[in-house]
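Service request form, structural biology core

Requester: graduate student, group of Dr. S.
Request type: structure prediction, single chain
Budget code: on file
Notes: please return the result as structure tokens.

Sequence provided:
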Amino acid sequence: MSDNKKHKKISAAPSWLGLSEDRQAFLLLPDRAKIVKRIFDLAIGGMGSYAIAKYLDAQQVPTFTQSSQWDNTTIDYMLRNRATYGEHQPKSFAAGHKKGIPSGPPMPDYYPAVIDKKMFEAAQVARRQNLAHRGRKGTDLASIFGDLCFCAYCGSNVVFHRISNVQVLVCERALDDGGCSRSAWTYKDFETSVLAFLAHPALAERLSGSQRLSLLDLAEEIRKLSTDQIERYAARVNMAILLKQIVAKLVVHSAGATSHPRLSLAQIRKDMAGRCIDVELRDGPLYRCISVA
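Core staff response, request fulfilled:
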């Protein structure tokens, strides 16, 4: 019997697949496939497996097993599984061993693909970056801005950092002693400033279509921040997702728009006078947002 006529074994297939009635073809389970795609979107957005699992639980997304909660190891395995873009690696199994040994080259397009290979690779890059900068497994999402922030002086990423237990945003190059401005922006004030600007009704009135709807959704998530901790966590994750849809980039002037950047040998200082952010929307003009604090 040829490979095309062999009955498929569902036990060897990923959990987001089913079988055709004649058991000769794998089929995507639409609801599960949508969840897998969402998990990859979250990973590319900078969330680790623990944070993704917590978010899915908060959103009451059903698992693919009998478990009532998502497990970070399941998320991590899924993000590393090349079957997500259709590849199958044949394996041989020794007696008494559950873990197979690769047998022959990988087989492309063996399974229906949930994502493409480009998206898979983007998730791997995001996972490596997340592991390199992993924070504590807390009950809140530390930064909702991901990789949207850039330094106005050198163009490098502006990253989440802690200075004497104070959470700040600072140029990555400055932390690496690369010679850029050693001025930081207290994270809480930065978040307040950006969200106050984006949630202002006057901004939504200037826009139309999906951009306006996303801004209104963002305002709704901001209103949820006073709820219980689980709802708060889900709201902040949703805010991070919406920001990706609304904002192309945030250019951060930590030392003010016209101030001279602090020298590489200077101590990092927080909240310099005149600090501001250039907000570049995906489907709109660029705005300058001055700190409200």
